[in-house]
Amino acid sequence: MSITANDPNRKTWLDIPENTDFPIQNIPFGVFLTRDDIITIGTRIGDYAIDLGALHQLGYFDGIPLTDDIFLQDTLNDFISDGKKTWRLVRNRIAEIFDIKNTTLKENQDHKTIVLFTLDEIEMQLPVLVGDYTDFYSSKEHATNVGTMFRDPDNALLPNWLHIPVGYHGRSSSIIPSGIPVHRPQGQTLPNGATEPVFGPSRLVDFELEMAFITTDANALGEPIPIEEAEDYIFGLVLFNDWSARDIQKWEYVPLGPFLAKNFASSVSPWIVTLDALEPFRTEGPKPEKPLLPYLKSKGKKSFDIKLEVALQPEGGEETTLAHSNFKYMYWNMSQQLAHHTINGCPVNSGDMMGSGTISGPTPDSYGSMLELSWRGEKPIKLMDGSERKFVEDNDTVIMRGYCESQGRRIGFGEVKTKLLPVFQPKKK
Amino acid sequence: MSITANDPNRKTWLDIPENTDFPIQNIPFGVFLTRDDIITIGTRIGDYAIDLGALHQLGYFDGIPLTDDIFLQDTLNDFISDGKKTWRLVRNRIAEIFDIKNTTLKENQDHKTIVLFTLDEIEMQLPVLVGDYTDFYSSKEHATNVGTMFRDPDNALLPNWLHIPVGYHGRSSSIIPSGIPVHRPQGQTLPNGATEPVFGPSRLVDFELEMAFITTDANALGEPIPIEEAEDYIFGLVLFNDWSARDIQKWEYVPLGPFLAKNFASSVSPWIVTLDALEPFRTEGPKPEKPLLPYLKSKGKKSFDIKLEVALQPEGGEETTLAHSNFKYMYWNMSQQLAHHTINGCPVNSGDMMGSGTISGPTPDSYGSMLELSWRGEKPIKLMDGSERKFVEDNDTVIMRGYCESQGRRIGFGEVKTKLLPVFQPKKK
User: Which residues are catalytic (chains A, B) (predicted)?
Assistant: First the structure.
């Protein structure tokens, strides 16, 4: 089925800003609370949020096989379960409804009042109920930087890294949408030179600049997903800030991997940009440096040229952009990740989230974490206001943005913006 | 509120086997499919499964604050969210309904036909929707055995082990109830002496004898659970077989922990035995060998004397019991695990599952995995039929059982029984 929603020449009758992340060619999906305190599934064009539940009730999706309440839900999971064909039909239809040549909704003031919201009238929610969250470790530059700092500069990459898209399970319950603040975590750390751990607030709180893809129901227990089918099960992507506490991580992570250093929060951008919308921005990833086992051999352009940036804003101050990176730097692509994840028969369901791991580029200004940018604190970073940062400080806000741009076309993700609060103080009883 | 359901002198009017795991003092909770293909929440007394949805509709829970459909669900999550007070009211009421002195249901043949099922009339389901699954590593004997085999016999325990209830996130989507067979996983392994990995079926498939506890909604993002409150948030326990592929694990697990070696399946016993039912079997755990940080200091008897055993049954053959262990061997108790898990503010929700890690005892006949029992294959285990096992073979069935017993009282978990099938063969298209 052709993705007519991607037609680059289409314009919309909505009044939208130039160079928006959300032109009529994007049509992402999200969940929001409306001014009437109703939860609905919606999309966004320019700075309008569009209530798909209302549009469906008004008959605008007639002819597409959808249950009546498919958009009147507090998560996208059921819609995502409907599969790629349905996602395409819905995106194509939305493009038609808002096409500048289509006057049906444009000239129906009553319907427009019901369907359209400005951004200040809504509150974005987590777009999916995340059944399982996996985080990969797929940027070679990031893995090399971390290996150099914490292990051995001469053998920074571990022996399995070039053979396996290394990943581990994360915590679903602490995945939160942009805008929800996070408390600095407390925990055990081992001070340099000490033999006994101490307890207290983490002193090395960090962000990780990542993206995450969201899957549909992919396979039954026991059944691997062949790599050439993997993209059929990917609904879309979000920006992903995988908050980390480096000092807690260092003490706890051997031998079973990171746990409390990571599971206090991961923040996501609220609009899922579909894989379909990213089609024009396909690109090749890095060439494999070792021969791959057959189940990991992917063909064609399986990466995407998505420009990423991360900024830090001190309380009341202005933003400083800390780094620019790109999704295409990832050594392992999403098809490889999903094929690997299921090669043992692990089932993948609708709403599962798969993080890329920190996406660092080849140059120091493209590193995706404070750990790398400040080189574990040895090179403090100067902010616009003159202050310095080695890691994230209380009341700092971290902002990540991402967008594709080529030949005047832009498809963006908006942002994920999260404030770090001081350590949680229990209420007196 | 007193737990009258635990009255040791109570007898039931139901005809139940002597020495059953499920006397009227147990009253576990599970989910089953009835002969009429209806999903309901139920309990078990002797070899009867009891439809709580039907009991509630018939008015037997009048006076207890429950929503009408609380038991007419395909998971226990909402009931568990109702909290400890409600669980107690319901267990106490069930005990009254089936008390030998109570003739109300006993003499109502119509009601009994609706409410009571024999075990062959029902099909047990997974009792909860597992939002997040964490696996701890809390048996010192197991951690020591594994450290001795894979790292350094002189420093078998890693430096953090006596300070932290080490744990990691597992995969929720592959948690399955007893009776569902599991395919031998395929994956990458590094043969001894090789420098490049190979692909194929795992040759070292293993079980892990564990238990898991199930939580209720415990805390908001950012908010730790104090250790003295931890048990308020524990609904109950199940037997837990954490299937493992040792050869895949060895190659993949550095530095982020086990992934595909574990996430192909974990099998649970279908009846959740409540923490309340286990009250009479409280016991002290091992004494801490290092001073604990205050947030991990627990008071009183926080462990439970639960006898565990694991058996292996070859295709068509008889069972061989491989090991006897006990939940009380765990160095870290559940309160410590939950306090640690949330000390950084990680939110815990209803239906979350927390595995103990393999529970090995002090003697070689109490080890909880084939890895330890056969000492990584060096000491093959003789089965009743004369054959030998180093690890689990295709078409072997692994059976785990657990029960508390003291002074003539017994509260049991039944069993978790899982057959290992050969590698999955894709259907020809």
Answer: 142
In whole angstroms, what is the distance from residue A292 CA to residue A301 CA?
Answer: 17
DSSP tag of B12? B
Among A134, A202, A208, A256, most B C-beta atoms within 10 A, so best to mutate, is A256
Which of B158, B159, B173 comes nearest A349 by C-beta? B173
Separation of alpha carbons B340 and B168, rounded Å: 12
How do residues B286-306 score in pLDDT, each as one tens digit?
999 999 999 999 999 999 999
Question: ipTM higher than 0.90?
Answer: yes
The two three-digit tokens of residue A9, written as one number:
């020449």
Q: How many residues belong to chain B?
A: 429
Residues of B known to be catalytic: 142
CB contact under 8 A, A348 and B223: no
Read off the DSSP letter of residue A393: P
Short-list B186, B342, B187, CA closest to A171: B342
How are beta strands A205-206 and A244-245 bridged, if at all? antiparallel
Question: Counting beta carbons within 10 angstroms of the beta carbon of residue B95, is it exposed (0 to 12), middle (13 to 18) or buried (19 or more)?
Answer: buried
At A258 the three-state DSSP class reads coil
Residues contacting A165, CB < 8 A, separation 6+: A136, A137, A138, A296, A332, A336, A337, A340
Phi then psi dihedrals of residue A81, to 5 deg: -65, -20
Contacts A–B by Cβ distance under 8 A: 209
Beta bridge partners of B403: B307, B412
Give the pLDDT confidence of B107-142 residue by residue, as tens digits.
999 999 999 999 999 999 999 999 999 999 999 999
Alpha carbon distance B215, B335 (integer Å): 11
Contact B336, B227 (CB under 8 A): yes
Structural domains of chain A sorted by starting position, each given as residue range(s) with its CATH number in brackets: 4-124 (2.30.30.230), 133-421 (3.90.850.10)
Q: What is the DSSP letter of A279?
A: G
The dihedrals phi and psi of A77, each to the nearest 5 degrees, come to: -55, -45
Q: What is the DSSP letter of A37?
A: S
Q: Is the peptide bond before B255 cis (omega within 30 degrees of 0)?
A: yes
| B408 φψ region: left (φ > 0), alpha (ψ -120 to 50), beta (else) | left
